[in-house]
Amino acid sequence: MRKLVLITLLAAMSLCPELCYGQNPEPQNRRYKVKIDFGKAYISGICIKKDIEGGSLWSLMNEFGVSALSFSYDESRQKTRIISMLKKLRKPGVKAVLRRDLSVICEDLEHTEGLDTLTHSYVSAYKEDIVYNFTPLRNEITQ
Amino acid sequence: MRKLLCIISLSLASLFSGMAQNQSRIIEQINSAGAAVKSLECDFTQTKHIKLLNDKMVSTGKLYYAQSGSLRWEYVSPYSYIFILSDSKVLLKNSDRSDVIDVNQNKMFRSIAKMMGDCIVGKCLSDASSFQTSISESPSEWVATLVPLKKDLKQMWSKLVLHFDPAAKCVKVVEMYETTGDKTIIEMKNIKMNKAIDPKVFSVQ
């Protein structure tokens, strides 16, 4: 019996080291498989979200690793600021539409985080032919 | 004083001429080895370093190349994504969609596709219209630094660094530095050369 208790304890310790040693592991950045459909064309790739004080930082890259977009989200103001953008995307109106749509998406994803692995689809509130798809990726696969 | 300056100039000239000769010799060796590559297949690990987030993203997959210029770049993790370049067509395939693009109508894809293929066999080292190339040599590797000269490549990358295995004279690591400060490192593993590849691998249908 004592042996069984010892084995159970060791197994629990290896599963939850932070409980045993009182340490919080470094929170992992959230990863999403992303597709932004512009009707005739689309961008696909991976988006990584890092929580920072008062909001989050996001970076979107295509499958080859080329950075397409990076932005920050201010939680209290529910506003997004574009930090950098692939030159190809810098077209009149695109930045403003992306900024406003991404504010809504960031706010929504904040509340659904960790709940499921389903794809979250959003139709642009400003241009109906733009559809955003965010599918959470499991961290253990990507790191 | 004039004599000293003359000696220094001559020494520098001979040093640079020696370096240029060395560079030409390495490029020649890589080119002749590349010309002998009829086909190539390997596994790859792609690590994207994101400066803004101080994080990295690792993807893995398989690469197939044929001398005709056909290329299959297949990601298996974190999710399946296939890029096939065959003749002037590019197939992009993910879990819910397949798109065939004519590279002649899409400048960005044309330059990415050409650069990927040329990097694999080292052809890009001699492409003086696209890159300014410098080469350094150590016993364990040859390192080529390529600075893009063309507008479409310059928009994406500040430089590319190719690491070659001097014994096999083939590329083993490609580092791509973006203008944003991010970088992507692609490591080739289990490289198999001149092994027959099923033509279906390059099918864009």
* Low-pLDDT windows of residues of chain A: 9-25
- What is the N-to-C order of secondary-structure elements of chain A (H for helix, E for strand)? HHEEEEEHEEH
Helical fraction of chain A: 25-40%
The CATH class label of chain A is Mainly Beta
Strand content of chain A: 35-45%
What sort of overall outline of chain A do the alpha carbons produce when their principal axes are compared?
A: globular
CATH architecture of chain A: Roll
User: Which chain pair shows the most residues in contact?
Assistant: A-B, 27 and 28 residues
Helix content of chain B: 25-40%
Radius of gyration of chain B: 19 Å
User: In the residues of chain A, how many domains can be counted?
Assistant: 1
What is the strand and helix layout of this fold?
The complex is a heterodimer of chains A (143) and B (205).
Chain A: H1 2-15, H2 17-21, E1 30-37, E2 42-52, E3 55-61, E4 67-74, E5 79-85, H3 94-112, E6 120-123, E7 131-137, H4 139-142
Antiparallel strand pairs in A: 1-2, 1-7, 2-3, 3-4, 4-5, 6-7
Chain B: H1 2-35, E1 39-50, E2 55-66, E3 71-77, E4 81-86, E5 89-94, E6 97-102, H2 107-120, E7 131-137, E8 142-148, H3 151-154, E9 157-165, E10 170-178, E11 183-193
Fold and architecture overview:
Chain A has about 140 residues and is of the alpha+beta class. Chain A has a single domain (about 25-135), classed as Transcriptional Co-activator pc4, Chain A, CATH 2.30.31. Chain A contains four helices and seven strands; from the N terminus they run H-H-E-E-E-E-E-H-E-E-H. In chain A, strands 5-4-3-2-1-7-6 form a seven-stranded antiparallel beta sheet. The termini of chain A are far apart. In chain A, about 25% of the residues are buried. Residues about 10-25 of chain A have low confidence and may be disordered. With about 200 residues, chain B is an alpha+beta fold. In chain B, strand 2 (about 55-65) and strand 3 (about 70-75) form a beta hairpin.
